[in-house]
Amino acid sequence: MSDKGLARTLGFATAAVLALTQAPVGFVRDEGYYFTAAQSVEAWLRMLLHSPLQAIAQTERYWSYNFEHPGLAKLLFAASHLVFTTWLGVLPDALAWRLPAFAFAGLLSYWLCLLGLSRSRAAGVLAPLLFWCAERTFFHGHLACFDIPICALWAGVGVAWLRASGPGLAFTYGAALAVKHNAWFLPPVLLVHALLLPGDQRKAMLRKLPWLLLSPLVLFLAWPLLWHDPLRHLRDWVAFHTHHVHYAWWYFGQVLRGPPFPVWYPVVLDALVLPLTNALVLAAAGISLLWAFARRRLDPQRLLELGLAGAALLPFLLTTTPIFGGIKHWLGFLALLAPEGASLLARIAPEPRRLAAVAAATLLPGLWQILHVHPYGTSAYGELAGGIPGAATLGMQRQYWSNNVTGVLPWLNAHCPPGARVYFHEVNVESYRTYVRMGMLRPDIRYAPSPLQSDYAALQWHREFRDREPETWNAYGTRRPATGLYLDEVPQVVVYARPGLPGAP
Amino acid sequence: MGLPRAAPFIALIAVGAGSLLFDLTLPSRLPSDADWAEAAGALRGAAQPGDAVQLWPVWAERARLFVDSMPVLAEEDPRQADYPGVLRLWVLSLPRTPFFAPPDAALQARGATPSGAEQRFGALALRAWDLHAPPADPITRSLEEHEVDYVPRRCVVVPIGGRLAERAPARATLHVRAGVVGERAYDADRPEILVQIFADGVPVGSLAVPRTVRDGTGWHRLDVPLPAGAAEREFVFAVSSPDRARSFCLQAWTSG
User: Fold this and answer.
1) Which of A194, A315, B45, B216 sits between 20 and 30 A of B82, alpha carbons compared?
2) For residue A378, what is the DSSP state?
3) Which of A380, A407, A123, A159 is nearest to A276 (CA)?
4) ipTM given for this complex
């Protein structure tokens, strides 16, 4: 098999595995918003097909929802749903919306494989595996969100910078820009990379750089919101992220509510949530790249990987950038260390049998983590944290923010009387509607705004929302849960029922 | 392969094997439903008035599914916790979980002593502690609980700007606890809340509740000797602050 064939195979395999394991993955809060945005965009696409001029005139109406994120990913989620669900009727809603995310995940494997293959064939195979064999990364690969897409394009822009033509680079960077604002940080990385290269290589790269000026065209085309009053919408986009709110986040027994955050927060979190072996290998990869950089022994590709990994992490070391969302906002850091990590594995075990042993030792803990914790990926912790119970004792964030509710939906479906009102806590109404639409929740079960106005309550355990549980006790007159989702004994979702109702203790 | 070259290989195999060993044996260190049911049965058989269960670690709240014979508490600091009205504390713990640190030293530091041998129910441990708490009488009687500083408290919500008046037995020492319910305790730039306390019209103390800055400091305490007077008195708590938007909760009792 050719190198590209191998990379393609790994890419398709990644997308296929994610598609096959997505059904039980709950809808994180943001995903509910993106589903709603995709429905609005799908309506716009249908209008575009029937009355293009009207659609062009009405971009504001259909694209203003979720104005804070550019259009490409939402456009793809919508197009996928339009084709596979609305027209062909072959896929359920959530799978259709998520399908483009799987394609991005496949692209990430493809590009990581290419970066690894430049070192050795073994590194090409191991690089994507090193990234994906952890429940946190595996989980995020399933979501119709932007974190894996921008992570993929982080790597993709790197590959395009090193290998593609100017137009190819412009398109890839444009796609990144049209997926998420993280892409704002890429041009400085590429510029610094070019400046650090020796003579002729520097000139060649600097000549490529101006192609990036064409990239905003992709952003503009993929985001029809910009077609009218673009400056205002661009200003709103930038302002949203430069003034982003800080959500409470539990970290070593303290709820972090605002800056200054601990400097090493992202690195420590990576070490705690990843399987220990992955964390060690990726740490060794980072040290290896830094060591080679200090000794000026980095080739252009490794130098770029170091720059991209560092740029993905750097904003979160500033102590002022919002830190919520576990590791999802700096997945590019892990991804760009994976090829070097894979190469280190291949170097310490060059013989096939030893390589198999070392690959198994590295990847099996992550595979176990996936088998053991999936689909509750936001709750996963590695061995260094003592797993989920150890992390609970350390006072670490249990989950974010509501996808784990899938663990109690079957119970609610089985026990709620017709028309029961359920307080779903952090499950937003968009996600609730999607659970109903997907058949995961009975359509007669109603969404209650508070414990007081509910018959059942499914409380997601969050340190900052601890008041909800006594509030429920007071409303129901009982302190005894009916059931719950407990991972390795640690409460994730606790369900209460009003005494006398089916399922109440 | 020489030893220096083989060292990373051996180290990685060892870490991988150790990680897997940890992962695969973790479930065996956690209680089963049967363990919980047995422990709950033992508590049911031994329950007396004044008993309560303290979970340890405090996240082990799956116990609430099983324990039905006495209040289940998840106080985070057993040394400082008041445990009002509790005479005997049953510590129900998961001693084989990672980073487990027994609460024994904290309980001993407050003068508690074990009142029986530790019982084991699979991965669960159960031990009763005598708190040697002085006799106490509640002033505030709340059927409700509210979360202050991440612990459910049997406190009474008093509107800021309002007063709470309760007639209750007056023992030697007055204990007042108060704080803002929920996350609003951390609201920036909020003025402090002042509680002025009177017993039969005589001022006996005041308690200032500033904005909570750090977790674990939001449940404020006042312990003052009561001046001589009637065995039963009317206690008045006047709560004031320029900002009335927060939910304020108060608990009081006398002891001695």
Assistant:
1) B45
2) G
3) A380
4) 0.96
By the 8 A CB rule, do B250 and B180 touch? no
- Enter the pTM of the model: 0.96
Rounded CA separation A405/A414 (Å): 15
Residues B106 and B35 in one domain: yes
pLDDT at B130 > cutoff 70:
yes
On chain B, the residues whose CB falls within 8 A of the CB of A379 are none
At B107, phi and psi to the nearest 5?
A: -70, -40
The residue among B97, B130, B163 that closes a domain is B130
The pLDDT score that the predictor gives to residue B214 is 86
Note whether B90 and B186 are same-domain residues: no
Token pair belonging to A444? 């007669």
Instruction: Identify the helix (H) or strand (E) that includes residue B178.
Output: strand B173-180
Candidates A361, A386, A479; nearest CB to B72:
A479
The string of pLDDT tens digits covering residues B191-236 is 999 999 999 999 999 999 999 988 888 999 999 999 999 999 999 9
Cα distance between residue A435 and residue A344, in whole Å: 44
Name the residue in chain A with its Cα closest to that of B143: A474
Question: Which segments of chain A have a pLDDT < 70?
Answer: none
Nearest to A389 among B24, B97, B182 (CB): B97
Burial state string for A69-92 with b = 16 or more CB within 10 A and e = fewer than 16: bbbbbbbbbbbbbbbbbeeeeebb
CB B193 within 8 A of CB B209: yes
φ and ψ at residue B138, rounded to 5 degrees: -75, 145
Question: In terms of domains, do B125 and B199 share one?
Answer: no
